[in-house]
Amino acid sequence: MSSCIATDWSSGVNYGGLWPSKLVACKYRAVEGAKRVVDLAMDTTGGAGMFKGQELERLYRDVRCGGFHPPTATWSTKLVGKTALGILGEEPRW
Fold it and tell me: Which pTM was predicted?
């Protein structure tokens, strides 16, 4: 999915108002996939991967930071949901 969206962006595909939803969904999927990979690597290598100076420790930390970098998972799901409902840009109802 990620490479298709990157190719579409580079090629100037016109998704109009769907672009924000597509981009945040792509980022969300990439971060969640990377988390699964480093979690598996940590399970496989055991505790040694958590010590400073280990490449896996850096990768684990960097991947986890992807979830905090905007847009966060909560913001992403809100944007995708509002886009699907056709209410993106409207004020909250509460």
Answer: 0.79
